[in-house]
Write a structure and sequence with these properties.
The chain is α/β, with parallel strands linked by helices. The chain has 14 helices and 20 strands. β4, α4 and β5 form a beta-alpha-beta unit. α2 packs parallel to α3 and α3 packs across α4.
Length: 482
């Protein structure tokens, strides 16, 4: 997959020296900027092309645009080396609709504006005004930056942009499949793939059947299963007593889904984990989905394709496993919520007790208990977590952060954890306001989750894609609408 490619270009005006005599002038200012961005690009594993000549006039800019377009730049960072002509940003913006504008602190606050100053911030201010007002109907998106190349705040701000746009680029062309349809009755998970393909650039395939996976799983020879068995059964601190037949079923279907992704070029899956797996195989998909998630294939339960897409975006930003949760409990005493699912989470999320691969217990009528299929039972380790779901007509984003509590309260068997320190769109929210926000907005009942706090990157990716975050709706006793 191609890396994000950043273009860097410096702009100036002929009558600006770029600082007092002996400082190296505007050429050194730009050279220092290139060095700083080059180091950051290497750290974040993205590509950088720095145009070597400072732009002064329209002819310079046209020449630079041709070269930068040939380099297939995804994001153009304009280094306002000194105050420069407004025509330059107009020309650049029409060729590169995703822009960064970077101003430098003044090297001197006294003396001549042309010999001692660079007037860079004023140039940034003017360029922002041109893009927002003069070009308001052009659909240009830009983000401003301020500081020297070594400044921690500048580097963090640019890091957020690079991670967000890297994910946006990877989403474009990513392939996501739905196998077996949406779980019966889960109508809140319906989606229009045409809108997702247009907004995100995804390749969505929704017509695969469970039979395709079943046939693969049943066709493997014992020899072909050896590597899958070792992989599928690794990573658990405890495997409760279960039959060899149950373990083999887990390995066969894990390998079938894994090979299906490899052969079809799929980056994420939405799996209709019931009822066909229960009806046709007398088993479950939970542990299989958990192992897929652990090993880098975002897999959503119950045919939740928008959930799988949201998990994939999280994975592209954080580069680690994801999972899909229900919100199953609320505790107003400390404003925490129980995030739970029956057992499809990656074992790397487990606390010190580890993850247990165990047989699911289900009612079988007349007081009997059925034990069939495997789930991953674990409590999540204390850590920051992020929940994000693209919702609406692929134009809204639900974004919640929190911390898995160190002192866990009782919870249902499965993959789970109580989460506190709740923040919606990076702003604190109490439990009842969160519940009200979810229900008034009509959020789907699935919450894609990833370890770590990647809220800034997700909010930025949403902004570039034209996706609006769902705003908090504080709890009231009267009927509320949105």
């Amino acid at each position: 997959m191609n890396n994000l490619k950043i273009g860097l270009v410096g702009v100036t005006q002929a009558n600006f020296a770029g600082g007092a005599a002996g400082t190296g002038g505007k050429e050194k200012l730009f050279k220092d900027g290139v060095a700083g961005i080059k180091a950051l690009a290497a750290e974040l594993r993205v590509d950088l092309y720095a145009y070597p000549k400072l732009l002064i006039n329209d002819a310079d800019t046209m020449e630079a645009c041709a070269v930068l377009e040939g380099e297939k730049v995804d994001f153009l960072l304009v280094h306002v080396t000194t105050f420069a002509a407004g025509e330059i940003i107009i020309r650049l913006a029409k060729h590169f609709p995703r822009l960064g504008i970077w101003a430098l602190p003044e090297p001197a606050i006294e003396g001549s504006v042309f010999f001692d100053s660079i007037n860079s911030f004023c140039g940034l201010n003017m360029y922002g005004g041109i893009l927002s007002h003069y070009l308001k109907d052009e659909g240009i998106q830009y983000k401003w930056f301020y500081g020297n190349a070594e400044d921690a705040r500048l580097l963090r701000r640019l890091t957020v942009t690079v991670r967000a746009l890297s994910a946006v680029k990877k989403m474009r062309g990513a392939k996501v499949g739905l196998l077996g349809g949406i779980a019966p009755g889960f109508n809140d998970l319906y989606f229009d793939e045409r809108i997702a393909q247009k907004r995100l650039g995804l390749n969505i395939q929704r017509n695969h059947e469970f039979s395709e996976i079943k046939q693969r799983a049943q066709a493997y020879t014992e020899a072909e299963l050896d590597d899958a068995k070792a992989e599928a059964l690794s990573g658990y601190t405890n495997c409760a007593a279960m039959s060899a037949e149950c373990l083999e079923m887990h390995a066969r279907f894990y390998k079938a889904y894994r090979d299906f992704c490899r052969d079809g070029g799929y980056d994420a899956l939405a799996i209709s984990c019931w009822p066909k797996m229960q009806e046709e195989m007398n088993s479950l998909s939970c542990s299989i989905i958990g192992k897929l998630n652990q090993n880098g294939i975002p897999a959503a339960c119950e045919g939740d394709l928008p959930g799988a897409v949201s998990m994939l975006m999280q994975k592209y930003i954080a580069e680690q496993p994801t999972t899909l949760m229900d919100l199953s409990g609320i505790d107003e005493s400390n404003h925490s919520v129980l995030m739970w699912h029956c057992g499809p989470s990656p074992e790397c999320y487990a606390d010190a007790k580890g993850a247990c691969l165990c047989v699911s217990r289900q009612p079988a009528g007349e007081g009997k208990v059925s034990q069939r299929g495997m789930v991953i039972d674990m409590v999540f380790m204390p850590q920051p977590v992020t929940f994000m779901r693209i919702t609406g007509e692929w134009d809204r984003m639900f974004l919640l952060n929190g911390d898995v509590l160190e002192n866990q309260k009782p919870s249902l068997d499965g993959s789970r954890g109580w989460v506190g320190n709740l923040r919606l769109n990076r702003r604190p929210i109490d439990a009842m306001d969160l519940v009200n926000t979810i229900l008034v907005h009509g959020m789907q009942h699935h919450y894609p989750m990833i370890a770590g706090d990647i809220a800034e990157e997700l909010l930025e990716a949403a902004a570039w894609l034209g996706i609006a975050p769902l705003e908090a709706i504080p709890y009231e006793n009267y009927l509320q609408t949105h």
